[in-house]
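Comment thread on ticket #2218

A.B. wrote:
> Attaching the input chain for the structure job we discussed in standup.
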Amino acid sequence: MNRFSRLFALLAMGVLAGCGKPEFSDAEKKTIASLALSALPPPKTDTTNRFADVPAAAALGATLFFDVGMSGDGKVSCSTCHKIDRQFQDDLPQAVGVGRTNRRTMPLAGVVHDPFFFWDGRRDSLWAQALAPLENPLEQAG
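C.D. wrote:
> Ran it. Output below, let me know if you need it in another format.
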């Protein structure tokens, strides 16, 4: 076996040794569990939204979330950027809707517990926030 083969074999063993499953301490496991959305208290009642607990309103919201017909080009819905399998964001450095914004998509997981919305906090309720992307020429341009 030549020198290069030995070096390669040693390097390969080192790489493979580092591929084991990470082990978390009990304290780390407890911290991770505390970050689960189910660990949060129930959300506060939104007294400004009389439809917050109406099932038909929630169903309408879910339908509109996936509706591309609300966008200016007929191709973009809320779910275009807020992907369910990515905690309702898209992993991009800048959101891409009808155009490109200068900020990344805000994750929506646990959003019901947030007091302000958008990266700059310009909306103070979910129902007030919902109109802004529809009207924004770079997001949905509706």
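A.B. wrote:
> Thanks. Noting for the ticket: The helical segments are 3-17, 26-34, 55-65, 78-81, 126-129, 131-135.
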